[in-house]
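Milestone 3.1: sequence recovery, worked example.
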C-alpha cells in the first residue's frame, strides 16, 4: 500500500495530456452534464419523485419499492408489468398492479421533466462540441442516462450506438464497428426494455423525445419500461445490468477495455464500485482523471481518493483540471430557469 499523504495539488492541462497520450476511451459521469445544466446535480431521482410538485410517489407506490427492496424504477416497473400479465393469464384482476405501474411511471416522467434541461435551451454549438470531442475516442462509456449525449449524436453522424436494426433493437450478433461507439453503461432515457429482456431505442426526434419519454400512445396496455439504472446499491445495479443483454454487453466492454482511459465528471463513489472494479480488471495502461479544483486541500483530497481506488493495479494515474477539457468548458453552461 502506497503512502498518499504527500500528494500535491498540481493538476495538468488536458491539452498537454491528450497530445502526449493516445486515449482509446473515455468514461463520462454526471459532472459532464452538470457543466451544462446545474439541475442535473440532484442526489436521488427516487427522492425527487417523492417530492415532485405534480403527482409524486404516494404510499401505495412506495410500498412497491419497499416490497422489492429497491430504489430502481426499472426494477419496480418491470415487476409490476410482469405481475399484471401473470394476473391476466390467471384471470385475476390486474387493476392494482396496472394502476401502480402508471402512477410510478407518471411520477418518474414528471421528475425527469423537472430536472432535465429542455430541448429548446440546448445550443447547437454545445451539441457540436460534445460530438466533436466524443469522436476522438474509439469507445465512449457513459453512466449518464440523460439525453445530452444522445442529442449530440443526432446532431452530427459519426458515432455508433449499436442500435442498428430496422426497429432499432440491439443485437448481440451485430456489434462490430469502425466508428466511435458509445455505450450507455446504465441505460438511458431513450432506451426501453422489451418483454424478452432485449433493448430498443425509442423512435423519436431529438426535439420531442424528452416530452414523449417512455410514453405509449395508448393506456389500455402496459407500455415500455424505461431501461436505465437510476440509483441503488451496487448489488441492485448489477442485478439490473445482468438482466439486460445490452447492459451486460456494455459492462463487459468496460471490463475488457485496453489502453489509456480518460475519466471525466465521474465521482466513482461507493455506489459505483462496480465501475471501479471493472476498470481495475481491465487492461488500462493510463488513467487520466478530471478534477474540479475548488481549493488546494480539496484537490489533494480528490487525488488521494482516486489514487487509493486504483492502488495496486500498476496503472499510471494522472490528474488534470476539468475546466481544461472540452466537456468541462464553463462556456457550455446554460442558466437554469426558475
Amino acid at each position: 500500500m502506497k503512502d498518499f499523504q504527500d500528494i500535491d495539488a498540481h493538476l495538468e492541462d488536458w491539452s498537454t495530456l491528450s497530445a502526449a497520450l493516445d486515449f482509446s476511451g473515455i468514461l463520462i459521469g454526471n459532472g459532464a452534464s452538470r457543466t451544462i445544466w446545474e439541475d442535473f446535480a440532484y442526489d436521488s431521482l427516487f427522492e425527487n419523485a417523492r417530492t415532485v410538485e405534480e403527482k409524486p410517489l404516494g404510499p401505495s407506490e412506495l410500498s412497491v419499492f419497499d416490497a422489492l427492496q429497491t430504489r430502481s424504477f426499472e426494477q419496480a416497473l418491470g415487476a409490476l408489468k410482469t405481475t399484471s400479465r401473470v394476473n391476466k393469464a390467471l384471470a385475476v384482476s390486474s387493476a392494482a398492479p396496472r394502476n401502480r405501474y402508471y402512477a410510478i411511471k407518471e411520477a418518474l416522467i414528471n421528475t425527469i421533466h423537472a430536472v432535465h434541461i429542455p430541448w429548446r435551451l440546448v445550443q447547437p454549438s454545445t451539441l457540436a462540441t460534445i460530438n466533436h470531442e466524443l469522436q476522438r475516442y474509439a469507445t465512449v462509456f457513459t453512466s449518464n442516462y440523460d439525453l445530452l449525449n444522445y442529442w449530440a449524436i443526432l446532431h452530427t453522424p459519426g458515432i455508433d450506438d449499436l442500435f442498428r436494426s430496422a426497429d432499432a433493437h440491439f443485437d448481440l450478433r451485430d456489434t462490430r464497428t469502425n466508428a466511435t461507439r458509445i455505450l450507455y453503461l446504465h441505460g438511458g432515457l431513450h432506451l426501453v426494455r422489451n418483454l424478452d429482456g432485449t433493448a430498443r431505442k425509442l423512435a423519436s426526434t431529438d426535439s420531442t423525445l424528452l416530452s414523449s419519454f417512455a410514453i405509449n400512445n395508448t393506456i389500455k396496455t402496459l407500455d415500455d419500461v424505461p431501461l436505465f439504472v437510476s440509483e441503488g446499491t451496487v448489488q441492485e445495479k448489477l442485478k439490473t445490468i445482468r438482466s439486460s443483454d445490452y447492459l451486460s454487453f456494455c459492462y463487459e466492454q468496460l471490463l475488457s477495455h485496453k489502453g489509456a482511459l480518460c475519466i471525466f465528471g465521474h465521482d466513482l463513489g461507493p455506489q459505483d464500485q462496480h465501475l471501479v472494479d471493472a476498470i481495475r480488471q481491465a487492461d488500462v495502461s493510463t488513467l487520466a482523471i478530471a478534477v474540479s479544483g475548488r481549493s488546494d486541500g480539496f484537490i489533494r483530497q480528490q487525488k488521494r481518493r482516486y489514487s487509493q481506488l486504483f492502488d495496486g493495479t500498476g496503472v499510471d494515474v494522472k490528474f488534470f483540471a476539468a475546466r481544461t477539457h472540452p466537456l468541462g468548458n464553463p462556456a457550455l453552461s446554460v442558466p437554469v430557469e426558475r
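The chain has twelve helices and ten strands. The chain has two domains: 14-37+122-332, 47-115.
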